[in-house]
Automatic annotation (TrEMBL):
Keyword annotations: Phosphoprotein
Domain of life: Bacteria
InterPro entries hit by this protein: CheY-like_superfamily, Sig_transdc_resp-reg_receiver, ST_Response_Regulator
Key word Protease present: no
Xref: Gene3D superfamilies: 3.40.50.2300
Name of the featured protein: Response regulatory domain-containing protein
Residue numbers carrying 4-aspartylphosphate: D58
Species of provenance: Bowmanella denitrificans
Domain Response regulatory: 6-123
Entry keyword annotation includes DNA repair: no
Length: 313
């Protein structure tokens, strides 16, 4: 489910505040609420009464610089993601800002596409997914994964075009596999994450355009930038919700549900572990839709502890 995202723009230039705002208003992934502040004092007043999710700040401002603003946010332990839109290009200062927790540094002048690309990882839930996976505890006694035919049947039911799902060998993890979409599937009773789904960019574009053909016109630009827009995420969320129904708890025989779908632009600590799961805990395949192309879809159990013993016949 997508919620309204609050973004606070901090810049002592009214013209630049307007430029950044116009760029944000063209961003299609989330519904945004945008407020403006002319400096740090006004920014903290807005933070106190409005509680933004993201703060986009200039660097060189009177009274308190953008870096000092970031440091004060850290000192107060405020749950705000900070990015910079600035002319500052001193690598030592930029490195300091990143070390202090800045999510990106975007240099002025900028194209709207560059702003959107920088903002995308902040709003698509990748950090939330990483946190959920890192907090996994306990022993999971297993999820019954679908076979290729079951998965193909579910996908075919969503599209008018012909769909095939062909099992393939798992890939070893490589940063070159990124970016991708990561789905977290949970037990609806315990809310425990039981499996993850991995959909590469080609699979994302193929499935989303099969569901909504009007998106075909947007693929070339997104492929060049390696991004996914809101409309595609919405289509893939619906698709992965249906895929969740094919995943069953081995004990209760209840279907899992989709907890979260994220755009993952860079690796995180659990990613290599997901790719390293043994073959009996995963289903990897190529989804091909006639006339549109194909992409890779993997469903991986998060089972920990020893796998159940197989009966010897």
């Amino acid at each position: 489910m997508y919620v309204v995202l609050k973004i606070l723009i901090v810049d002592d230039s009214a013209a630049m505040r307007a430029i950044v705002r116009r760029g944000l208003e063209k961003f299609g992934y989330r519904t945004l609420q945008i407020e403006l502040a002319s400096g740090a004092k006004e920014a903290f007043e807005m933070i106190g009464k409005w509680q933004p999710d993201i703060l986009l700040s200039d660097w060189h401002m009177p009274m308190m610089s953008g870096l000092e603003l970031l440091q004060e946010i850290n000192r107060r332990r405020l749950p705000i993601k900070v990015g910079f839109v600035t002319t500052e290009n001193n690598q030592q200062l930029v490195g300091q800002a990143m070390a202090e927790g800045a999510k990106f540094i975007l240099n002025k002048p900028f194209e709207d596409a560059a702003l959107h690309k920088a903002l995308l990882p902040l709003v698509q839930g990748a950090e939330e997914s990483e946190s959920m996976l890192n907090n996994q505890t306990g022993v999971d006694h297993g999820v019954a994964l679908p076979n290729a035919r079951q998965l193909q049947t579910v996908l075919q039911g969503m599209f008018s075009a012909e769909v095939t799902f062909t099992p393939v060998e798992p890939l070893a993890y490589s940063p070159e596999l990124l970016p991708l979409l990561l789905a977290l599937f949970e037990d609806p009773d315990t809310r425990k994450i039981r499996a993850v789904g991995i959909l590469d960019l080609h699979g994302t574009y193929t499935l989303a355009t099969a569901k909504c053909p009007s998106l075909l016109a947007e693929i070339s630009g997104m492929l060049a930038d390696k991004t996914v827009n809101k409309a595609m995420m919405d289509q893939c969320q619906e698709i992965m919700s249906s895929v969740a129904m094919t995943l069953l708890d081995k004990q209760t025989r209840k279907s899992l549900t989709l907890k979260n779908l994220s755009f993952v632009p860079k690796t995180f600590s659990k990613m290599e572990q997901i790719y390293a799961k043994p073959q009996h805990l995963r289903m990897d395949g190529l989804v091909h839709i006639k006339g549109l192309g194909q992409g890779r879809l993997s469903i991986v159990s998060t089972q920990v502890g020893r796998p159940a013993r197989r009966q010897v016949s």
